[in-house]
Design brief:
Helices cover 36% and strands 26% of the residues. The protein is of the alpha/beta class.
């Protein structure tokens, strides 16, 4: 599914919180249609890196280019860029006072000034895509964790992104609900969506990723195909990590 177009270009990215250096020197290119999965221990900088990719965190050095636009340039309208970069968080961030349909229609109507009828049609189509068209009138409190996360994915898709970022999307879920969320993500990957996924789900990384990155200490220590990373990791730190989690 990959073309040779670079969708995300990261060059010597750094991020510090006061004295604490969270990202040391991260460089990465993600191609159109590629699924890149980032694994590593807690505190290794994975989520911070992902949040820098749509400037939810401001980097302290280096450059990030999304679709040819340097988002580290402060004059760039980041909200226009974010319209093309969907993000799904560990916690679902749904508005509890709105039903599912209104949650999905809110950003397209408010930010993109979409026609309400068209926004509704798109929202229903995306709910259908994640297998929840029967929950349009339900409120978040009436949904399971897995259903909420699938709604969150549908909400991101309503903005018609061409890149999706996933920050540990299954780590807050009960184990039996993980599969339904991963299935939606696999479907997106099969359809050629460019995806960067931070996850602890090694089975997903092995099955779906084009490339797996191992991060620790704020830097990428190893990157390779899933087969190479999981069967023949070269870096001792990667070997040690995988011995503990597999």
């Amino acid at each position: 599914m990959q073309s040779n177009a670079v969708k995300i270009h990261v060059s010597h990215l750094k991020k510090s919180f006061k004295e604490l250096e969270v990202l040391e020197d991260v460089s990465l290119d993600v191609l159109e249609g590629e699924v890149v999965v980032i694994i590593g221990p807690s505190g290794s900088g994975k989520s911070t890196f992902l949040r820098c990719l749509n400037r939810l965190e401001e980097s302290t050095g280096g450059e990030i280019v999304i679709d040819g636009i340097s988002i580290t340039d402060k004059s760039v309208d980041i909200n226009k860029v974010r319209e093309r970069v969907g993000m799904v968080f560990q916690h679902f961030n749904l508005f509890n006072n709105m039903n599912v349909l209104r949650n999905l229609m809110l950003a397209p109507v408010d930010l993109k000034k979409a026609d309400k009828a068209q926004a509704r049609e798109r929202a229903m189509a995306m709910l259908e895509r994640v297998g929840l068209s029967d929950k349009a009138e339900s409120y978040p409190s009436q949904l399971s964790g897995g259903q909420k996360q699938r709604v969150a994915i549908a909400r991101a898709l309503c903005m018609k992104p061409d890149i999706m970022l996933f920050d540990e999307p299954t780590s807050a879920l009960d184990p039996e609900m993980v599969g339904e969320v991963l299935e939606v993500m696999k479907e997106l990957a099969r359809d050629g969506m460019t995806m960067v996924v931070v996850t602890h789900e090694m089975g997903f990384a092995r099955e779906v990723a084009d490339r797996v990155l191992f991060m620790d200490g704020g830097t990428i220590l190893e990157e390779a195909t899933p087969e190479e990373i999981f069967s023949h990791p070269k870096n001792p730190r990667t070997q040690d990590f995988l011995n503990k989690v597999l």
